[in-house]
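QA checklist item 7 of 12: single-chain prediction sanity check.
[x] sequence parsed
[x] length recorded as 445
[x] structure emitted
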Amino acid sequence: MEDMEHEHLEEGDLDLLLAVEAGEAWLRSLLHELAVCPECYRVGGYILDLYQAGSLKIPFGPVDLALARSRAEAPALWRELAGRALAEQRSLVQEDRRFASWGLCELLCLESEKIAAADATQAVERAELAVLVADLLEDGEPAEDRWIYQLRGYAWAHLANARRVLGDLPAADEAYQMADSWWQAGEIVGDAQGYGPVILELAASLRTAQRRFPEALELLDQVISLYLDDDPEHRDRHRAGRALLQKALAVSQMGAPESAIRYLRDAKTMIDPEREPRLRFCLDHNLLASLASAGRFREAESFLPVVEQVCREVATDLDQFRVRWVEGRIATGLGERERARTAFAEVRRELTERGMGYDTALVSLELAALDLEEGRTAEVKELAREMVTVFRAQEVQREALAALLLFRRAALKEKATAELARDVADFLNRLRHDPDLRFERRGIF
């Protein structure tokens, strides 16, 4: 760079110069030349743009630059693909080498995770496309040897996550095995891009869904430890808070709402709502539900307006009905039966209209339990008939349908109890995460 005052950059210079000269003083001199010389900017201006955008930090070398450029170009590539059918997307990616992009693979993974709760099918498609992109990349495009293995592990982990949200746990487990295999193949070079904690976090979500709670909690403790590392490059309190939120969800499913409450309150001090606005709702909604599950109904009632406000600001219409559902449980606990019945009925209508048969059955059972406690057997008979009709219209586990049929039979014979309704609801909740469960048929006939 000694002669840069007199010589302009030419195409092909940068890779060689970066490989040979890339000391901090030289890099700052390069950035200065790019800023003041239009001819040099024409050749390497993207470097200055990346640096000014915060995507590139001194010191950097050819690989850092190539990765930053790939990530900066990824949104435009995704815009070319978005809106097309998956088959057409796959064809384009396979035929046009522009789409063999490290940054595009990462972006597809993030897109998959972002939309999973709202549209699990599309989340699976985006993750499948990420896996394809990662497969098309080779060592040196642009990262060092074996880094590509870690990217493939990252992509497969996101496919496992999308399949988990979709409810296909066996397929999710297969995808995670692929993720783990690729990760182990590339682990010899260390965690080159910081994917490790993310993969562990996604694995913990899968283990929680599989009700393999000890494994899930062990993984989450590793994630929290990694994100609270003393090294400022790896420290991320927000991500640690996310993992603590996941830990709260796991212990909640284990039937320990008091522990969940403690974890959620700790997580609330760590999460940055500006980074993930919806995460604030997830945390507050789960704290509200845990307070209700722990029987702390007065505390939950006082917290309800806070959750409703957050829901209006950052959540979806369906989320509002999920909050309303918890409100029904709070009202039940406070003995406000009419308020509870109104809430459950509203939620039930909404879920029925959306074709969400499983959740419709669950809230119907909570409504039935209220009616049974007040001797409203006619209403319970109608609810029982409708529950089975909705369930039969969907593909549900045989054991789930058997439990509902048992409840309907008891209701029609006027032998159903509020306890039985709540037992069936509890069974259906657990069956979602443990398909091997069997319903204990009580001797009620």
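[x] summary fact logged: Residues 316-445 form a domain with the Serine Threonine Protein Phosphatase 5, Tetratricopeptide repeat fold (CATH 1.25.40).
[ ] second reviewer sign-off
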